[in-house]
Structures are given as C-alpha cells and as structure tokens.
Design brief:
Residues 365-387 have low confidence and may be disordered. This protein has 11 helices and 2 strands; from the N terminus they run H-H-H-E-E-H-H-H-H-H-H-H-H. It has one domain (3-374). The chain has helices spanning 3-44, 60-70, 81-97, 125-133, 136-146, 150-183, 190-195, 213-226, 251-276, 294-322, 328-357; strands at residues 107-110, 113-116. The chain is globular and about 60 Å long. The chain is mainly α.
Length: 387
C-alpha cells in the first residue's frame, strides 16, 4: 500500500470514527434530555419529578426505554404495514444525519493526524441541512396516512401543515444569516460561516451591526414550531383527535417519534449556534491554554459549542414550563400573517444595510475542502455590497 492509499484509508477510518461518535453522543444525550426536561418542569411547578430509578432519577429514561423495547407491539389490522413501519424511520434518520455537517469544534491532532471536528464539510452544507430537516414532514404525513384512521389522518394533516408553514419563514431567516456571513467572506459551508464569526461575540451574526437579531429570533421561533414544542406542541396535544398522527403506534415505534423530536431539538440548537452565535468560537478571543496542551486545548471549542447548544435546550424547557399552547388558527395566522411578511421585510433591510454600509474587504482563506479560488456561490468575489 503506497502513501496515497494509506492516507485514504486513514481518512476513511477517521470519518467512520467521527460518524460513530456523533451518533453515539446523540443517542446517549436524548434520554438525558427527557430526564432533564421532566426535572426542570417539575421544579418550576413545585413538584418532585423522577427520583426513584438511579441517583436523582437519572436512570428513569433508561427504564422507560427498556419497558418500551419489551412491551407488546400491537399492530392494528387496518394499517398499511409498509408505510406504518416506515414513518418512524423517516422521522429518526434525518434527525441523526443533520449533525454530519455541523462543526462542533476546531481541529484536533491525534497520532500525528490532524482532523477537523466535523464529519464532513460540504460546500453547500446549509442546503443539506434544509433538505434533511424538511424530510420530517414526510414521517408525520406517512404516520397519519398509514394508520388508516381518520383521527390520525387529521392529526397528520394538521401537523404537516404547521411544519410546512413554519419552514418558509425559517428558510428566509437562514437566507438573512447567509447574507450577513457573505458580507464577511463566508460561504454556504457551515465551517465557513463559523469562521466568519471569529474574533469575539461582537462579530457573531445575531449581533453584527444590529441587523442579525431579528432573523435569529425568527429562526428560533420557527425551530420551536418545527420540532412541535410548546407553545406550538399541538401535534402532541390534540385531545379532539385522540393523540394526533401517532395514535395507532405503540412500543419502540411510538418511542422513535419522540427520540426524533429530542434529537431535532439538539439540531435546532446546533444550527442556531452555528449560524448566529459563533459556532464553537469563544465569546472573548483570549488564549488561556498553551499550545503544548494540545488535546485539552482542542476540547475548548467543543466546550463552548456544548454550552451554547445547552442554552437553547434550557430555553426549550423553560418555554414548556411557562407558556400555554396556542390555538391552531392563531398558530397558522402567526406564521402566514406575521412571520412570513416580517421575514421578507427583514431580508430587504439586511440587503440594504449591507449594500450601503459595507466596504469591500478581502475574502479570508476558505476553510472548506475547496480552494478559495474555486469557491462558488455567496462567497465568490464580493461586489460593492459584499455579495
């Protein structure tokens, strides 16, 4: 095996290790997210919460998972079997794949090999994220349709209408973030977007020139609605429709829907951190650890990324503990009459301010896998407006 082939094998092994690590972390974190939410909501409501299984009730989610795995799996005789089994899988797989393009750290050197802490740096990473997150709608629709139950079908239709409606202003908010990153030399690669927000929290997209906070807020609101969380959790609380699109599901198939929901909470927090909050960058660019502490220094960016995502998870918890859910007509009206016009106006404002106020700057070296000279899209040669 020559040197080139050996390098390819090493890169393949590193990629497989990163994939396994990301999937394992998500699958381990999800049960603890369930426990954390139950404990936090219990504290807010002056209750005890889970405290029996394991210290502080930490193993309660594990016990629930074991129960669901060995629970009798009831298969209604009137369902479309293929689509019925496919629906929870369609919900779960995209939730696990989104993290593949999100950089959760800078880079690390192990055994003489340096690798970036991202599974893959796609030149169009943000399009990959949008494509995968939109697939969750299909899982909801398939679950309602395959159940062959009018209540499940109505629940699936209402849930999919909610998710499709909030995808539009979410996409427009992301466009605003890309415009801001482009003005600073960023590309559509998420690694490039993070690099465009370095050198302090004042360069983060949601604070940049005061024009990034509104798209950040809109993205966060739409992310809550996309993950069916309070106060937009009507898909899980439709008492007039029994239980919504998952009425006919039980056992692990039922659990997969909620595992996907909590995994998507992590995804929304990670994407918000990457697009608007500097990604893995420290709020204040001060070198604390010397370069000789290579491994510990490499874990510093992972720590900051985790803290930021943890903040968004806490916000999910707090909203559920404090806000009542919206009525369905108000939920839809808020999207189409409020967020969509506001997102369009916001894009116009962002483009105007960047065009009038931005002075041409040299594009920083690309951090994606392509040479900067071959970059296409939003970070090509910036014109007077930086686009």
């Amino acid at each position: 095996m020559d040197g080139e082939e050996q390098s390819v094998v090493v890169e393949l092994i590193i990629a497989l290790v990163k994939i396994a690590l990301v999937v394992a972390v998500i699958m381990v974190l999800v049960p603890f997210l369930v426990w954390g939410e139950r404990k936090y909501v219990a504290d807010v409501q002056v209750r005890i919460g889970p405290n029996r299984v394991g210290p502080f009730g930490l193993l309660q989610s594990l016990a629930d998972g074991i129960k669901l795995m060995f629970k009798e799996d009831i298969l209604p005789g009137h369902v479309d079997r293929v689509l019925y089994f496919l629906a929870p899988i369609v919900m779960m797989i995209p939730a696990l794949c989104v993290m593949a393009v999100i950089p959760f750290g800078n880079q690390i050197t192990l055994f003489g090999h340096t690798t970036r802490l991202v599974v893959t740096d796609l030149p169009v990473g943000i399009l990959y994220v949008l494509a995968l997150t939109s697939l969750g709608v299909y899982g909801v629709v398939l679950a309602g349709w395959a159940s062959n139950n009018k209540y499940s079908l109505l629940g699936g239709l209402r849930s999919s209408a909610q998710m499709v409606s909030y995808e539009l202003p979410m996409g427009l908010a992301i466009v605003a973030a890309l415009m801001i990153s482009s003005a600073k030399g960023g590309e559509m690669s998420l690694v490039s977007i993070v690099e465009a927000q370095k050198d302090g929290f004042w360069n983060w997209n949601f604070l940049w020139w005061g024009i990034g906070f509104l798209p950040f807020l809109m993205y966060w609101i739409c992310g809550i609605a996309e993950t069916n969380r309070a106060p937009f959790d009507l898909p899980e609380a439709e008492t007039e429709l029994v239980a919504g699109y998952h009425t006919e599901y039980s056992g692990m198939k039922f659990a997969l829907f909620f595992l996907a929901e909590y995994a998507n909470m992590l995804n929304v927090g990670a994407i918000a951190t990457t697009l608007f909050c500097g990604g893995w960058h420290s709020p204040i660019p001060i070198e604390i650890l010397p370069k000789s502490m290579g491994l510990l220094k490499a874990l510093g960016p992972v720590f900051w990324f985790s803290v930021k995502v943890g903040f968004f998870i806490w916000a999910y918890y707090h909203l559920r503990a404090t806000l009542p859910r919206l009525r369905y007509d108000r939920l839809m009206g808020f999207a189409w009459k409020g967020l969509v016009p506001l997102a369009l106006v916001n894009i116009l404002i962002v483009a105007t301010i960047i065009t009038l106020g931005y002075r041409e700057k040299p594009v920083p070296p690309s951090t994606s896998q392509r040479p900067a000279s071959q970059a296409v899209g939003m970070a090509g040669q910036p014109g007077p407006g930086g686009f």
